[in-house]
């Protein structure tokens, strides 16, 4: 497939795991398991198209409202995902990054993520940013404290205005570029507190495909959509 522009950063709201499972008379957890396989496919196609950054919304700050059994299943699958895929991910030149608050995440989960980040930190082909215990509001609010802490450490004045450049340096996603293309699966057309700052000028692509069914053609359709957009960033063409 021939494309003129490739997004530098794609963000994916991987929605519809539960509905996928319910449609097949399976437990919601089975949907999350299939969702993990869809991540493998996405990363492979992303490598092929030389997409440098992908953010994956895996667990939001609002998802703690779900039953504890489902929460445990999701984190169990995440730990399993890292254990079973880390070697292949590393061999493919993928760097793992985490975005989200560390509080509330268990020691086991943090240990796995930190290990995966350390192992893959020099990889350059693709950054897979796992957004876990991530919320756009929490990120923006806590970022003020990170900016101020950094200023204090450098003995700088605390009351000069914050520039976007200074602010962005401390976001969880730093040093990833802004989101060019935001994809949401499963028919819902809302942002659900995902990458609010970073998606300010993102092109939005919605599909009714449920996340576990998302594959090569689905990503290619999204890339074609992106390629057809005329981006103006507030200016004139
Ligand atoms: C998205 O699928 C995965 C997570 C939020 C962890 P859902 O679990 O939200 O699936 P639906 O929306 O109930 O179908
Ligand atoms: C968004 O999906 C969060 C993730 C995909 C991790 P939700 O299913 O939680 O979003 P809402 O509740 O439909 O807005
Ligand atoms: Mg959902």
TrEMBL record:
Q: What class of enzyme is it?
A: transferase
Query: Which annotated residues bind substrate?
Result: 16-20, 28, 32, 60-62, 64, 66, 184, 190-192
Q: Which residues form the signal peptide?
A: none
What does the record give as the active site? 15, 63 (proton acceptor)
Cofactor note (record): Binds 2 magnesium ions per subunit.
Q: Which CDD domains match?
A: Cis_IPPS
Q: Which GO terms describe its biological process?
A: polyprenol biosynthetic process
One Pfam family this chain carries?
Prenyltransf
**PROSITE patterns, per the entry:** UPP_SYNTHASE
Known EC number: 2.5.1.-
**Keyword annotations of the record:** Magnesium, Metal-binding, Transferase
InterPro entries, alphabetized: UPP_synth-like, UPP_synth-like_CS, UPP_synth-like_sf
Q: Where, by residue number, does Mg(2+) bind?
A: 15, 203
What cofactors does this protein use? Mg(2+)
The entry lists its GO molecular-function terms as:
ditrans,polycis-polyprenyl diphosphate synthase [(2E,6E)-farnesyl diphosphate specific] activity; magnesium ion binding
What is the stated purpose of this protein?
A: Catalyzes the condensation of isopentenyl diphosphate (IPP) with allylic pyrophosphates generating different type of terpenoids.
Q: By its UniProt entry, which HAMAP family does this protein fall under?
A: ISPT (MF_01139)
So what family is this one in? Belongs to the UPP synthase family.
Q: How does it assemble?
A: Homodimer.
Name the chain's protein: Isoprenyl transferase
Q: Which gene encodes it?
A: uppS
């Amino acid at each position: 497939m021939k494309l003129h522009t490739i997004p530098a950063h794609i963000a994916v709201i991987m929605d519809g795991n539960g509905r996928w499972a319910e449609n097949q008379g399976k437990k919601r957890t089975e949907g999350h398991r299939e969702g993990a396989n869809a991540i493998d496919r996405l990363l492979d196609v992303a490598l092929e198209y030389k997409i440098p950054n992908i953010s994956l919304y895996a667990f939001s700050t609002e998802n703690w409202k779900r039953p504890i059994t489902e929460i445990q299943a999701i984190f169990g699958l995440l730990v399993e995902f890292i254990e079973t895929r880390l070697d292949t991910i590393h061999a493919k030149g993928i760097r793992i990054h985490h975005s989200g608050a560390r509080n509330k995440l268990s020691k086991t989960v943090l240990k796995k993520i930190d290990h995966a980040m350390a192992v893959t930190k020099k990889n350059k082909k693709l950054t897979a940013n796992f957004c876990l215990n991530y919320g756009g509001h929490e990120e923006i609010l806590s970022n003020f404290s990170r900016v101020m802490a950094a200023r204090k450490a450098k003995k700088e004045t605390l009351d000069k205005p914050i520039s976007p450049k200074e602010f962005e340096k401390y976001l969880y996603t730093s040093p990833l570029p802004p989101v060019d293309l935001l994809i949401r699966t499963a028919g819902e057309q809302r942002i659900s507190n995902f990458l609010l700052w970073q998606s300010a000028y993102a092109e939005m692509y919605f599909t009714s495909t449920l996340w576990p069914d998302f594959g090569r053609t689905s990503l290619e359709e999204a890339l074609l959509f992106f390629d057809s957009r005329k981006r103006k960033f507030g200016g004139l063409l």
